[in-house]
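Please fill in the sequence for the structure shown.

STRUCTURE ENCODING:
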């Protein structure tokens, strides 16, 4: 009783929480990673250090963001980024923090960021490059929401530098999502959470701000197979392809016997919409539109990492026709239409797009 968690996700009894505030019953992110690392023969700890570096940068960004509104870090820089989008001060701040943490950590050899046109090779002060990992990231997804106090997040995708590759460059990063060795996100919401996968399930850690640790709060996350809510910018309805318009009509039909009409839930901050749908079920769609004929979201550091996570949690992600993780990337900032979330809902959307199902 008085479980403060989402059903079946994590179970922290409210009285226990209030009385004990005994964090020793929680595993820290660091402990969790080290335990997993110990089970891999010949593991050097490099990957564990990389995750630690990302989590430290996440804590710094979290700290700064909690002060937005008090110090002059909200609002725009007056610049436009490589995507042609207005850059927020927090976009740049987050980008700089993650790049700094990854450089300092030494495990990463190449960074691709939404806020930087080119891939960024990392070398040590001696000019050597030792790191074996490539990190692609959206340092602050949904950043235009910061000024109005709405959840935003960081999304990251990790690849290994291919064997005998030579000097790391963009070519090394352009791997299919299936090659990701890890992916995750940090959502800066009513609490701050670090959620990641290494292809062995999905685990979520909540930041306990007074001790500065991410604690395992959502072990082995599974996403519902279906649900009754959808997330899409419906203002673009008239420029959706006919199959998608049909699917939306189907979800809106007055059919109470099977729970329709569904509810719309759209925050406008992908990582936050994704996080809610991961825990509660639902589908997030950013399709091709007239303004964005290839979709709006970026394949390499938005769609791929969250596709890896959703699949690991039992969900599905596609561009409407093809599995996201199987797509062959051609550019760092490439866009893709995206249908992601509860498996049955994504499958139904695909059937509508293929004309195999109609609203009736
Ligand atoms: P960003 O990475 O520059 O923040 O842009 C991506 C954002 C997503 O977080 C969000 O889901 C989407 O853009 C919202 O777009 P729209 O305003 O067209 O609905
Ligand atoms: Mg983004």
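FILLED IN BY: designer on duty
SEQUENCE:
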């Amino acid at each position: 009783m008085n479980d403060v968690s989402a059903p079946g996700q994590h179970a922290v009894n409210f009285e226990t929480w209030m009385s004990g505030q005994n964090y020793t019953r929680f595993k820290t992110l660091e402990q969790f990673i080290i335990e997993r690392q110990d089970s891999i023969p010949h593991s050097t700890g490099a990957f564990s250090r990389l995750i630690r570096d990302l989590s430290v940068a996440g804590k710094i960004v979290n700290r700064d963001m909690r002060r937005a509104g008090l110090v002059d870090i909200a609002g725009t820089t007056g610049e436009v980024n490589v995507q042609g989008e207005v850059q927020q001060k927090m976009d740049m701040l987050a980008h700089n923090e993650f790049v700094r943490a990854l450089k300092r950590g030494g495990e990463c050899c190449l960074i691709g960021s939404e806020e930087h046109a080119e891939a960024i090779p990392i070398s040590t002060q001696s000019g050597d490059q030792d790191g074996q990992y490539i990190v692609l990231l959206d340092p602050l997804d949904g950043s235009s929401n910061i000024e109005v106090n709405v959840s935003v997040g960081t999304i990251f995708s990790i690849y290994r530098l291919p064997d005998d590759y030579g000097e790391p460059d963009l070519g090394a990063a352009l791997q299919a999502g299936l090659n990701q060795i890890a992916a995750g996100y940090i959502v800066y919401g009513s609490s701050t959470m670090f959620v990641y996968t290494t292809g062995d399930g999905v685990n979520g850690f909540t930041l306990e701000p007074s001790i500065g640790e991410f604690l395992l709060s959502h072990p082995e996350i599974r996403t519902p197979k279906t649900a009754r809510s959808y997330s899409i910018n419906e203002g673009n309805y008239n420029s959706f392809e006919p199959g998608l318009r049909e699917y939306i009509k189907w979800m809106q039909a007055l059919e109470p016997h099977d729970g329709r009409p569904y509810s719309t839930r759209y925050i406008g901050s992908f990582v936050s919409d994704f996080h809610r749908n991961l825990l509660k079920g639902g589908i997030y769609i950013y399709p091709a539109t007239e303004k964005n004929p290839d979709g709006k979201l970026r394949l390499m550091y938005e769609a791929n990492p969250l596709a890896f996570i959703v699949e690991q949690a039992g969900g599905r992600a596609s561009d409407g026709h093809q599995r996201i993780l199987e797509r062959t990337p051609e550019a760092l900032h490439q866009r893709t239409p995206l249908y992601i979330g509860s498996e049955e809902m994504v499958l139904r959307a695909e059937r509508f797009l293929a004309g195999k199902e109609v609203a009736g």
